[in-house]
Write a structure and sequence with these properties.
This protein is mainly beta and 81 residues long. It is built from no helices and nine strands. It is globular, with a radius of gyration of 11 Å.
């Protein structure tokens, strides 16, 4: 399976820049998962965890809030941690 690019930044620094097979995000209205070829979207994020799988290993990042843009198998996230 071809990977998805995941780029997570905070106002202070880049937190993650990696290729993943999936990423789950705490959307404001409901949590959601992004897989390869996901439809384009922009969403706000609530407090919770971003969970992503890279190289078969699950990783987690706790966030307070943020925004995400999904487009062309690239997930760009700006968060407050």
């Amino acid at each position: 399976m071809e990977p998805i690019g995941l780029h997570i930044v905070s106002p202070e620094r880049t937190l993650v820049e990696v290729e993943v097979s999936s990423v789950a995000l705490p959307g404001t209205f409901a949590p959601f998962m992004v897989l390869k070829d996901h439809a384009p979207l922009i969403s706000s994020l609530d407090a919770g965890e971003i969970v992503y799988v890279s190289g078969g290993t699950e990783q987690r990042i706790a966030i307070r809030s943020g925004f995400v843009e999904v487009r062309d198998n690239q997930v760009n996230v700006c968060v407050e941690v």
